[in-house]
Each structure stands twice: as C-alpha cells, then as structure tokens.
Amino acid sequence: MPDLLVNLLELDPLEPELAELAQQQIIIRRAQPFELTKVCSFIEDTFSLSWADEISVGLGHQPVSVYIATMDREVVGFAGYECTRRSFFGPMGVSPAMQGKGVGRVLVLACMWGLREMGYVYGIIGHAGPVEFYEKAVGAMVIPDSDPSIYVDLLK
Length: 156
Description:
Blueprint: E1 4-7, H1 15-22, E2 26-30, H2 36-46, H3 49-59, E3 66-71, E4 74-81, E5 88-94, H4 103-117, E6 122-125, H5 131-138, E7 141-142
Parallel strand pairs: 5-6
Antiparallel strand pairs: 1-6, 1-7, 2-3, 3-4, 4-5
Helix pairs in contact: 2-3, 4-5
C-alpha cells in the first residue's frame, strides 16, 4: 500500500463538518490523556493491538494528537497524527456500525487540520489502504514508489 501526500493549504473547513455530525449525535473531539485505556481498548478490540500502540503515542503528546468520535459517550472511531512519524497521519478506524456516515472523513480532516496548525504544509498518510477514500476526503495524492514505506521491517 502506498503513502499519500496531502496539501494542507487546500483543506475543506472543519467546523461545518463537525456541526453536521453533531446533529446526528456524533461528536468528534480531541481525546484526553486520561482516556488512554478506554480509547486503546476500543482500538485493540475493534482493530488491532499495533494500532492501539501507535495511538498511545499520540495520547501522550501535548496537545494530544488523537481525535475520537463518540456517540452516546462511547468511542465509535479514532484517528491520530504524529503517532508513527512526524507529519504522518494514522492510524484511523471507525466501528463497522458507524461506517458510511462521514465519521472517517471528519476524523481525517480534523487530523489534517491538526498537522496544519503545527505548521506543516503537507501531511503524509502512511501505508494508505483505501486510497480512493483519502483522495476524495482530503485530496490526497499517491507518492510514487512509496510502498512499503516505513513498514518495511515489521515485527511479526
């Protein structure tokens, strides 16, 4: 899977997207450090231990570089940036029951705005699975010859 490049100067506004989801009782917000166990448990149970490990790094940043989606005060999605490498987005996941509602798009958009606020002009989506999703969501472009990226020597 290739890496993708996002021009952070061309991002759609975040606030209207947050408001639209809030009307559906879906809240996208920055996670709090004291939510580490709850957020990481959701990620491990729904996705993978390695993603929970990556996100735990972002939960230790100040400010926290992890956004979560909640509904009825339960975590239903997550995304992080600068958890793996500087200027890198990911991982991200949305519970299967919540997919197709725009949650993933708003999570990635919130994280890209977080990278922009840090002063970056470009963000990198590492080892992107659904390339078309990211192209549509934030105008991402494939970086030629970027596969397997930093994931070349993963521990099994």
